[in-house]
Design goal:
Layout (H helix, E strand, L loop, with lengths): L2 H10 L3 E5 L5 E6 L10 E4 L2 E4 L11 H18 L5 H12 L3 E2 L3 E3 L2 E7 L7 E6 L8 E4 L10 E8 L5 E8 L4 E8 L10 E5 L4 E3 L3 E7 L14 E7 L9 E4 L8 E6 L5 E7 L6 E6 L8 E4 L6 E7 L2 E6 L7 E6 L9 E4 L5 E7 L2 E8 L2 E7 L5 E5 L6 E3 L9 E8 L2 E9 L4 E6 L10 E9 L5 E9 L10 E4 L14 H8 L3 E5 L9 H5 L7 H16 L8 E6 L1 H12 L6 E5 L18 H4 L6 H10 L13 E7 L8 H13 L6 E6 L10 H18 L15
Parallel strand pairs: 36-37, 36-38, 38-39, 39-40, 40-41
Antiparallel strand pairs: 1-2, 3-4, 5-7, 6-7, 7-8, 8-9, 10-11, 11-12, 12-13, 14-15, 15-16, 16-17, 18-19, 19-20, 20-21, 22-23, 23-24, 24-25, 26-27, 27-28, 28-29, 30-31, 31-32, 32-33, 34-35, 35-37
Helix pairs in contact: 1-2, 3-4, 3-11, 6-7
């Protein structure tokens, strides 16, 4: 039978029934999933034969895979259509989302620029006004909504020349990490030269007004959305010349393969700082003198064991941020004449809290993470403490950076129950004043967030922030979403989102666990969740779920677990190790095939966190033992699951999600649904149009509540009257 006829038959016979018992639980659910063929494909790792029957789903260009995607989406949409309050959730999310969002202004040349979204625009619009005039005179400068009618082409970054006369901006099509770069004249908005194409994982850094540095890979053989890209190069593009004449400045040599290379020009246009890494952690640092074209590269760090970057320079004096001999990072000074580590001098030593510094107006600002909450200090360039910065409250700040000549900066403040507001900070006086507060139809006074610490399997204390409506009765009956990430040194700061606000309005609890593998407590915390310690992350997440239940926030029947990307792996591993942990699971854009993740796009660069199946027999066994794809078992009743992915996700290729969905559908016992929601013309998440975000979140919340047994929205859904 041809595969197309299988899909057609599956759709024709699609049956979905739902019976609700007196307790409100879905006790019968029958879904006829599209048949997914199996192929006889195997891999051998250290004499171990591993079957991969759904390998054909890795071919994102095949008509067969496309038909499978359409059939799966049809089943999923038919199921979601049965949820009686799906439209009600979407309407409320739309209402909450529909408020004016305006960024802080930034000065470039003669103009002040800012981003604005009227409320429901798919992409935010760049406005500008003469810096000496009233902001009310601002006009549209660049509108990404005009790039595509459905909002699927987004703005992927901007870079201005020092005088603000020229702008390079990147666009992403369909959510892909591949970018196109367009250079325009700031005064006339006319394009300068040709569009640069096939640019990926790149900053844009100008050299004078003459050209810019960017990074990319050679176009891969095969699919540009899934084929391996692991030889990064730094290029220089001189305006007015063809891109195919752009010289390679660094990388591309057979003796050393770099997967991530970045280049940044100093403000005085005399130095080029080059970072080069083989993975997402650790890298080399070099400096090239631009005023001496024939000079050799100057090596600052020549190993991949630590992370070091340039914070600031004054001529040949350098300020560096490093975790070398300082897992929580420190700031050191050195001289370009001999910048190797043995010549570094501590300026701001390491503390017990993780450091994230920036510069503004002739000062250094150090943001410290204290139990996942921000604290900020202001220093002179000689390391003298000027002041502790008074923040508006307990939460997360961002934006303590500005140009050297600026006397003010703008920063944002938010937490899980406080919509993000912008403050203006007088750099010399050290005072803050409210610049802009969003008009969100949400009253923070009705909600609360509290931080708790719970004990993981090995005794480690893990922080978690739990947010909910004040006065909520903790009797184990509250619908709860537990979110986690736990990887790549990424920290989960408290921040407000409209979607979380809607969940709490519906009587929901939202809990975020700061798991090992993240960056909340520095390099040691990160390393404790990598390679053959990755199980710590899953244990931390499982312990978070058990804590929420033991403390009567919720129960198994009312708990959903959620995570994206590396967090998708977290959810996939948790639900396969502990299928009884929750009622609902959302593995989103996840790493789910741990034996082959390194075969796609830039996946090989994630080996610092994961290791690879080719490293050693021990590493292979460890990965196989927790790989979600390889641990789905016949006859197990897994949680109601909705996998989400995007057909243009070229960071976490959708094949991970496709194969995991096929395994779950083939082996799931009981009546819990196992669905996959595949967004078209969408990638890993960045640049996703507002309309798609609202629909996806509506489906997630509807699916969660429906499979927690709710025939209608919880009473608290209408608790906030507007």
């Amino acid at each position: 039978m041809k595969i197309q006829s299988i899909y057609t038959a599956a759709l024709a016979s699609l049956a979905l029934t739902s019976c609700i018992d007196k307790a409100g639980q879905n006790n019968q659910m029958t879904i006829n999933y599209p048949e997914t063929k199996k192929v006889d494909t195997t891999d051998v790792y250290f004499d171990n034969v591993v079957a991969d029957p759904y390998r054909w789903l890795e071919d994102d260009r095949s008509e067969e895979t496309g038909d499978w995607v359409k059939a799966q989406n049809q089943v999923t949409q038919n199921y979601l259509a049965q949820i009686p309050y799906r439209e009600q959730i979407e309407n409320r999310l739309t209402e909450l989302w529909n408020y004016e969002k305006i960024s802080a202004p930034f000065i470039e040349g003669d103009y002040a620029y800012f981003y604005k979204n009227d409320g429901l625009q798919n992409q935010s619009v760049l406005y500008r006004y003469n810096k000496n005039e009233d902001p009310a005179t601002a006009v549209v400068f660049l509108d990404p909504n005009s790039f595509a009618a459905d909002g699927t082409i987004s703005l992927g970054g901007l870079s201005f020349t020092n005088d603000g006369s020229k702008i390079a901006y990147a666009i992403s099509e369909g959510g892909s990490d591949w970018r196109k770069i367009i250079v325009i004249d700031a005064a006339t908005s006319e394009q300068i030269g040709d569009t640069l194409v096939d640019v990926k994982f790149s900053g844009l850094s100008w050299y004078k007004n003459e050209g810019l540095y960017y990074s990319s890979y050679d176009k891969p053989d095969g699919s540009e959305l899934s084929a391996m890209t692991d030889q990064h190069k730094l290029y220089y593009h001189k305006l007015g010349t063809p891109q195919d004449q752009d010289p390679v400045i660094f990388g591309g040599t057979p003796d050393q393969k770099y997967r991530y290379i970045g280049g940044g020009v100093s403000d005085d246009n005399k130095l080029l700082f080059i970072s080069a890494s083989t993975s997402t952690n650790g890298g080399k640092l070099f400096i090239k003198r631009l005023d001496q074209p024939d000079a050799s590269l100057i090596t600052v760090v020549d190993n991949f064991d630590t992370n070091t970057s340039v914070l600031h320079n004054d001529g040949e004096l350098l300020w560096l941020v490093t975790d070398y001999n300082a897992p929580n990072r420190r700031i050191v000074t050195t001289n370009l004449a001999d910048p190797s580590p043995e010549n570094w001098k501590d300026l701001i030593p390491e503390t017990e809290n993780v450091l994230s510094p920036s510069t503004a107006g002739g000062y250094i600002f150090t943001e410290y993470m204290v139990d996942a909450v921000s604290q900020v200090k202001q220093y002179n360039y000689d390391g003298t403490l000027v002041r502790d910065v008074n923040l508006p409250g307990v939460g997360n700040v961002g934006g303590f950076s500005a140009k050297e000549e600026d006397d003010t900066l703008y920063y944002s403040f938010t937490n899980y129950v406080t919509p993000g507001s912008t403050y203006i900070y007088d750099i010399e006086e050290g005072t803050s004043s409210l610049y802009r507060k969003p008009d969100v139809k949400f009253d923070p006074e009705l909600y609360e967030s509290k931080q708790v610490f719970y004990t993981s399997k090995d005794g480690t204390q893990i922080p978690m922030i739990i947010s909910y409506k004040k006065g909520m009765k903790m009797d184990g009956t509250n619908p709860t979403i537990l979110y986690g990430y736990g990887g790549f040194n990424i920290s989960l700061y408290p921040s407000f989102s409209v979607t979380r606000a809607a969940w709490m309005e519906m009587g929901g609890i939202y809990a975020v666990a700061n798991l090992r593998g993240g960056g909340e407590y520095g390099k040691k915390w990160h390393d404790a969740g990598t390679k053959m310690q990755k199980q710590n992350v899953f244990d931390d997440f499982i312990a978070a779920a058990e804590f929420l239940k033991s403390e009567k926030y919720t129960s198994t029947e009312k708990l959903a677990i959620q995570g994206g990307s590396n967090g998708g792996l977290l959810v996939g591993a948790t639900m396969t190790q502990r299928p009884d942990i929750a009622a609902v699971a959302f593995p989103q854009v996840g790493v789910l095939d741990m034996l082959r993740y390194n075969k796609f796009t830039a996946g090989a660069g994630w080996a610092y966190d994961y290791g690879t199946a080719e490293d050693s027999p021990e590493m292979f066994e460890y990965l196989k033992n927790y790989s979600p794809l390889h641990n789905v078992k016949d006859g197990v009743n897994y949680p109601a699951t909705m996998i989400t992915t995007g057909d243009h996700d070229d960071r976490m290729v959708p094949a991970h999600s496709f194969k995991f969905a096929a395994e779950l559908q083939a082996k799931q016992a009981g009546n819990n649904p196992t669905l996959i929601r595949i967004e078209t013309d969408a990638g890993h998440g960045a640049g996703k149009p507002t309309s798609k975000i609202i629909k996806e979140q509506s489906d997630i919340y509807g699916f969660a509540l429906f499979n927690m047994g709710y025939q209608e929205l919880p009473e608290a859904a209408n608790a906030v009257k507007m």
